[in-house]
UniProtKB/TrEMBL annotation:
Cofactor: NAD(+); Zn(2+); Co(2+)
GO molecular function: 3-dehydroquinate synthase activity; metal ion binding; nucleotide binding
Magnesium keyword on record: no
PANTHER family: 3-DEHYDROQUINATE SYNTHASE (PTHR43622:SF1)
Annotated Pfam families: DHQ_synthase (PF01761), DHQS_C (PF24621)
Keywords in alphabetical order: Cobalt, Lyase, Metal-binding, NAD, Nucleotide-binding, Zinc
GO cellular component, one term: cytoplasm
Name of the protein in question: 3-dehydroquinate synthase
Enzyme Commission designation: 4.2.3.4
Function: Catalyzes the conversion of 3-deoxy-D-arabino-heptulosonate 7-phosphate (DAHP) to dehydroquinate (DHQ).
This protein's record includes keyword Hydrolase: no
GO biological process terms on file: aromatic amino acid family biosynthetic process; chorismate biosynthetic process
Originating species: Polaribacter atrinae
Domain 3-dehydroquinate synthase N-terminal: 62-174
Amino acid sequence: MKSIKAVTYPVHFQDKAYKELSNLITTNNYSTLFILVDENTMEHCYPKFIPNLETDKRIEVIEIESGEINKNLETCSGVWNAITELGGDRKSLVITLGGGVITDLGGFVASCFKRGIDFVNIPTTLLSMVDASVGGKTGVDLGVLKNQIGLFANPEMVIVDTDYLTTVTDREIKSGIAEILKYGITYDLKLFNEIKHNKDLDINSLIYRSIEIKNEVVLQDPKEQSLRKVLNFGHTLGHAIESFYLESEEKQNLTHGEAIAIGMVCECFMSAKLLGFPTEKVNEVKEVVLSIYNKTHLLKQDFSAIMELLKHDKKNINGQVNFVLLNDYQDYKLDCKVPEELIVESMEFYNL
């Protein structure tokens, strides 16, 4: 597959990517390579990656615990201390090998260490391939509030190797499908229809087109001043639901994609009420979502807690929650204000 040129860096695919990584390491004469993994990618992905790394530079592996619950400043502090104790300097390179938690946190760690050292993202889940590894966003959660601490910082390159997808569960694959559905509903309906009609998906083409779309948007609006906000469709309410399940001791955590899928159904419902998005398309989105994901029943007694988390969404301005809503497929409206009672009604609609 042809490489994609992002804002300041390339996205390389499959075998070519590792040759480009070796060239980068040689050209920049890095002092030490720090490879950031979690216990899962250490076991399943590191053995696939390391034979492709052609270098005589010193390699140090730093392992953190997996899961969104560990995407916080405490984990960052541990990584910064490890890099320091292992002799990291301004000519060190951080290579993130993992899903969205690893790429988000690793990019943030690299961007802050000694006021910024280079990093390379190697996403190993479908979600991180189509979303977290591209676009220059780095950061961590503050408690259960998603991505409250972070900054924009671009990697030196991104490596997308779909062989890593053999190491993840079916549930994680489905988590990534939610982001592709988002691109389809808001930007390129072919993606939505392909997922709707095909059980045997061409995952490589879906990944490539998703990265193309995100890159097209980010090139026009790197700092999310306008157009890039479209990438938040489903995420405003979805993040609040994800955070609620993350902090609950009684409930099983939702994956990012599972929560965003619920958010997309709810935000389609809001779109129908406020912008005239066709009811049959609301039902179509809900049908496709429920054909992929097990239904999560949102309890009425939990609505108030979800609404409270919604008020802390990082995209809010002056305390006002902003949604991306739809006039139609591929026809969206940014910065929509939604009455609280309609948000609640949308969750009740999802439950039906």
